[in-house]
Structures are given as structure tokens and as C-alpha cells.
Specification:
The protein has 260 residues and is α/β, with parallel strands linked by helices. The chain is built from 10 helices and 9 strands. Bound molecules: S-adenosylmethionine (SAM).
Length: 260
Amino acid sequence: MSAWRWGVFLVSYYVGRGLIRVARLLAYATAGVLTRRELGRATAGRWSDFGIDETYVLSGLFTWEENFYFRFLKPDDHILIVGAGSGRDLIGLRRAGYNADGLEPSATAVALARTMCAKAGVQAEFQVGWIETTEITEKYDVFIFSWYCYSYICDRATRIAALRAASKRLSPGGRIILSYTVTEPVTRYLPRGAAARLGRLTGTDWSPLPTDIIMFEHGGLHFEHQFLPGEIEYEVASAGLCIAAHQVGDDGLIMLMADD
Ligand SMILES: C[S@@+](CC[C@H](N)C(=O)[O-])C[C@H]1O[C@@H](n2cnc3c(N)ncnc32)[C@H](O)[C@@H]1O
């Protein structure tokens, strides 16, 4: 490669890396000035066009979902899928003979899920809303927080509120199943510090944790909490639940029951 081409590459590389860092800082800073509720709204847009491909929606349950979920589901269970999205896992469960309905904050995703259920020849009820704030009138035997949905709930207090909300609407002997992302300890001092400082200045009601991931995605902000060892146990205990089964590998899978 000639010297000038190599020079162009090096300049582009360093400018590009700098822009990526600026974008990350801006994403944390933006999240920092939002309240918990506003942050939830900002992330819902990110899920509006997730999994919209028909082949994906009709592809059924993933193998890990079948392996974990089917251990705990009983044939007559009434199941609520929290974070039903465009309907993939709900349609998979319905096709496997389970009575599953869905809750999902993105109205766009729910509209698609309804269309896809009709195409798949299954019937299901959907509610648009967040698990932590939606008034759930029925009792369910099982709440399944869909594929990493629990990790996508912004802020620890909101995640604990989400578990409490589900636990209040559990039938006797009911179960809560969820998956979450795991990580090693990380730093991210600068973006997290910026978000925390802006939050204090603007009087918001939350502050990022060291292993929160915040970034701009198509449609809105992506928020994800990646769990360090012991964190899920803390949140589960704070919600007054107990762990009945727990599997940790590349990610975490857990089944919870009421602590009585
Ligand atoms: C990875 S998507 C899974 C969608 C679908 N179940 C699937 O597997 O294709 C995670 C879903 O969780 C939803 N979600 C995030 N926070 C939520 C909350 N607080 N309450 C209910 N759903 C939530 C998102 O809107 C998103 O649709």
C-alpha cells in the first residue's frame, strides 16, 4: 500500500474510533438526563422493528428456550410472555399446545404479533405496556420474561418492581422464568460518570450501574444491564421471591417461585 493510502487509513481509523467514543458518551449522557419512565419510553422505540422478518417470527422457540421452559411448564398453565415482541416465542408456545398470552410495550411490535398469530393460525391476547406499570387483572400460572427481557428493563429498582408486579399476579404454585445477560466487572468510568453527574444536576430518579450498557440503536436507546455474580440473587430476594432453579453459562436462566 502506498504511503498516502496508509495515511488516509490511519486518519480515518482514529477519527472513526473517536466518533464511536463520542457517540457512546452522548448515549450515556442522554440517558442520564431522562427519568426512569422516560428512559423506558426511549428504549421502547428500539424494539419497534426488532424481529420483524416473517421467517424469524414463525421460526418457533429456540432450543435453549425449549430445554429450559419445558422443564417447568404444565399442560394447563396459563402463561404470560413479558416482552412478547413480534410474537415468535408466543407462537412457538401456542403451537406446542400451551395457553400463552403476551405483554409488550411497543405497540408496533404488538400489531405485527397479532398479524403473525393470525397467519400462524393461533389465537392469543396481547396487552400493550410495561410489566412494572401495567395493571394486570388476571392471575397467571407462569410469567415468562422473554429472551433477555429482564436485562433490558432499565434500572435496578424498576427490575425489582417488575418482579414484584409479576409475583402479585401469580396463581398458587406459580412460576416466573427469565433469562439475563452476564458479564465480568468493567469500568466505563467516563460515560457512567457523565450520566450520573447529569442525572444529579437535572434531578433524575436513577443512576447507571457499572455494567449497564447504553447505546444508540435504530429507533431509540438500547439499555441492557449485564449481571455480575450475586446481582440477580439480590434482585430476586428484594422482590420477595426464591430461586427454584438457576443455570449460569454464557447467560443466565432462572426459575423463581413465591417465598412462602
Ligand atoms: C429481545 S426482545 C424479544 C422479543 C420476542 N419475545 C422474541 O423473542 O422475538 C425483548 C422484548 O422485551 C421487551 N421489554 C423490554 N422492557 C420491557 C418491560 N419493562 N416490560 C415488558 N416488556 C419489555 C421489549 O420491548 C422487547 O420486545
